[in-house]
Write a structure and sequence with these properties.
alpha+beta; Jelly Rolls
Length: 282
């Protein structure tokens, strides 16, 4: 079961680590990020995706990642032949924002990254010594000085009649990074796969932040922490005409951080980007 973690409670650190260990996910409540900031940021990006200005910011390589606008049907899940039904924009601390998007995005990005660092520290503190001995450096240290943490703004348009059979808003996948923080999306649809092969809806309660482990945390911990499969399903009936927006923050280590005998954070990220169709070279 995905646990709900009250950020202000004394047992929050241990409870978070327990949920990430058992399910790969946790729902954090009573955290310091105001919902008004989240809601206003969603509103600004909804206007961006509805405008023609988005085409003026095509994604490009620069600094420590790919930033800018990725058009509809840009990405597929690993091992999936069908493109996801979404468009999105990549935000980094060092990359410019598009016209019409205020500093709310910068502020929310910074707040989420600060919270992510705290939560990663909690996991570090509650990891058994025999697991921690396998880290090439403490989890906290892996993100120090990193420029690769990504704030991704996603728009899932209404489901049209011309959707390719089998295509979904986001096919089943695991995240690439250490931790993902996701302020509640604007509509339901996120589902998590349990160890018995059953899908479960993740609550879409206003104000919560959903936290999940990524492949890099699973790799660094030798599988102690799970990178859980999840997806975003297509709505049905009248809800299919409603767009969905979400804003995950993907917490990344510095590229030189060694995660295993075969991968650094940089080599693993490059491999996964090629698998999901966002990188064709390198």
């Amino acid at each position: 079961m995905v646990l709900e973690v009250d950020y202000t409670s004394e047992d929050a650190p241990a409870r978070l680590a327990q949920s990430i260990r058992e399910t790969g996910f946790a729902v954090v409540t009573e955290h310091p990020i105001p919902w008004e900031l989240v809601a206003s940021t969603y509103d600004e990006w909804a206007r961006f995706f509805a405008s023609d200005v988005k085409s003026a910011y095509p994604f490009q390589e620069g600094g420590e990642g790919q930033w800018g606008y990725f058009p509809f049907l840009s990405e597929n899940a690993k091992d999936s032949d069908l493109k996801d039904l979404k468009e999105f924009y990549h935000v980094y601390r060092w990359a410019p924002l598009p016209a019409g998007v205020s500093d709310n995005t910068r502020v929310l990005h910074e707040e989420l990254e600060r919270l992510a660092g705290t939560l990663l520290g909690w996991i570090d503190d509650n990891t058994p010594a025999e697991v921690k001995s396998g880290f090439t450096e403490p989890l906290r240290g892996m993100i120090e000085g990193s420029q690769r943490t990504l704030f991704r703004i996603l728009h899932y348009p209404p489901i049209g009649n011309d959707v390719q059979p089998g295509a979904v808003r986001s096919a089943a996948h695991e995240d690439i990074n250490l931790l993902t923080l996701l302020p509640t999306g604007t509509a339901p649809g996120l589902q998590v796969l349990d160890t018995s092969g059953n899908w479960h809806e993740v609550a879409c309660d206003q104000g919560a932040v959903i936290v999940n482990a990524g492949d890099m945390l699973q790799m660094a911990s030798g599988g102690f922490y799970r990178s859980t499969t999840h997806r975003v399903v297509n709505p049905e009936g009248e809800e299919s005409a409603v767009p969905r927006y979400s804003m995950p923050l993907f917490l990344h280590p510095r590229p030189e951080v060694r995660l295993s005998d075969t991968h650094t954070a940089g080599t693993y990220l490059d491999e996964r980007l090629r698998e999901i169709g966002l990188k064709t070279t390198g």
